[in-house]
Design goal:
413 residues; alpha/beta; Peroxisomal Thiolase, Chain A, domain 1; nine-stranded mixed beta sheet; two-stranded antiparallel sheet; globular
Length: 413
């Protein structure tokens, strides 16, 4: 089985053993995101996660033009530190008919929307809110005090017992291993990968919501900053953020009567291929690629009936620059092994380039809300309200966390 998975991946031939079923047809073009909301992004909120979650949800409801009492579904991460019953009571939700959580951290960033779409399409609930709230900067994070020991007690898979005791403890170190291998196999330079961070900072400078708004950075600045974990420099790392984001999913039929222009869910997919170990997958025949992103993206393409060449703007999960850069290949925006050349100089990922990418500043320069801010930016692009607006986009690809069980979706205006 592992060999079959490898052959599919290496040959770039997605051969799903399932075909579109009526349930998927119920989601495609028949569900939509109708409201988005977020708190202010900060490095020290001074608030708890439930308070911020409620603010983001209320803003999403206001944006959609629906009453809070009309919300009857909630969807978030297992890692979220909020309590759904308290959110129901605090916001005055009339009756929660559906509630669910998705595992695996950032890999769930699009899976929550897929689940919400399935729920509203099948009539289980009418208006489902997907939300994420976290104090990633001022609260718990990797590398702080006894955080490793505490995390081990609730780690989603037991393999961490083989890496944490050796000091191999952080996502940056895990990603650095396969990222460096990818750079070696395809002769990618440090100068090339720096352009990802530079362009995303350009986007953030025009985005007043971004933590790095009005904080310019040149390619020279990037090259001169300290190395954190080989090959990742400081500016390759996402910005730890306190904040919350939310978006509301309902049926396309209901969306017609709401306040905002609907953004339709054309296709979505999840992926957890064999030999998965949450970023520390070093025993596969190759580690120079993102299996999960490739499979999730191609499942979303299959359901949507489109290809990478049809996408107009992309919001790719970049907890570190290489995660986003390598995703350009996995989503078929350039050839395998050519992402370094593709981003060199930055023009291809700018607003008027071949594939405008992470137009809010991404997780590196806007905020790190486990990818939920990427979903909101995808919605803004298709509404035509982004601070870095692509001209007349029709399709947007959004991906979730790389190197973990992941997800992706295609949105259309």
């Amino acid at each position: 089985m592992a060999r079959k998975i490898l052959e599919e991946y290496m040959n770039r031939k997605y051969d799903a053993d399932i075909k579109p079923k009526p349930a998927l047809n119920m989601i495609k073009d028949k569900t939509a995101i109708v409201g988005i909301g977020e708190t202010k992004f900060t490095r020290g909120s001074g608030r708890d996660e439930m308070d911020m979650a409620c603010e983001a949800i209320k803003k999403a409801a206001d944006d959609a033009g629906i009453k809070l009492e009309d919300i009857d579904g909630l969807e978030t991460f297992t890692l979220d530190r909020t309590a759904m019953p308290f959110i129901v009571s605090t916001l005055g939700l009339k009756n929660l008919r559906f509630a669910s959580e998705v595992s695996f951290g950032g890999g769930a960033a699009c899976a929550v929307t897929l689940h919400a779409a399935a729920i509203v399409a099948t009539g289980v609930a009418k208006n489902v809110v997907c939300y994420r709230s976290l104090n990633e900067s001022s609260g718990h994070k990797f590398g702080r005090g006894d955080g490793y020991a505490k995390y081990m007690l609730t780690a989603p898979t037991p393999h961490y017992g083989y890496t944490f005791p050796m000091g191999f403890c952080t996502p940056l170190s895990w990603a650095g291993a396969w990222g460096r291998r990818w750079m070696h196999e395809f002769n990618v330079s440090y100068e090339q990968i720096g352009w990802w961070a530079v362009v995303l900072r350009e986007y953030a400078n025009k985005n007043p919501l971004a933590l790095f708004h009005n904080k310019p950075m040149t390619h020279e600045d990037y090259m001169n900053v300290q190395m954190i974990v080989e090959p990742l420099r400081l500016f390759d790392c996402c910005v730890d953020t306190d904040g919350a984001c939310a978006h509301i999913v309902t049926t396309a039929e209901r969306a017609k009567d709401l306040k905002q222009k609907p953004v339709y869910i054309l296709g979505a997919g999840q992926s957890a291929p064999i030999e998965q170990e949450i970023q520390t997958v070093y025993n596969r025949p190759t580690i120079a690629g993102l299996f999960e992103t490739w499979y999730a993206a191609h499942e979303a393409y299959r359901v949507a009936g489109v290809e990478g060449k049809d996408i107009d703007v992309a919001e790719l999960y970049d907890p570190y620059s290489l995660g986003g850069i390598m995703s350009l290949e996995e989503c078929d925006f350039c050839e395998r092994g050519d992402a370094g050349n593709f981003i060199e100089g930055g023009d291809n990922i700018r607003v008027d380039g071949k594939m405008p990418t992470n137009t809010s500043g991404g997780l590196l320069s806007e905020a790190y809300i486990h990818g939920f801010n990427l979903v909101n930016e995808g919605v803004r692009q298709l509404r035509g309200t982004s601070y870095n607006q692509v001209k007349d986009p029709e399709l947007c690809m959004v991906t979730a966390g790389p190197g973990v069980p992941s997800s992706a979706m295609v949105l259309r205006n």
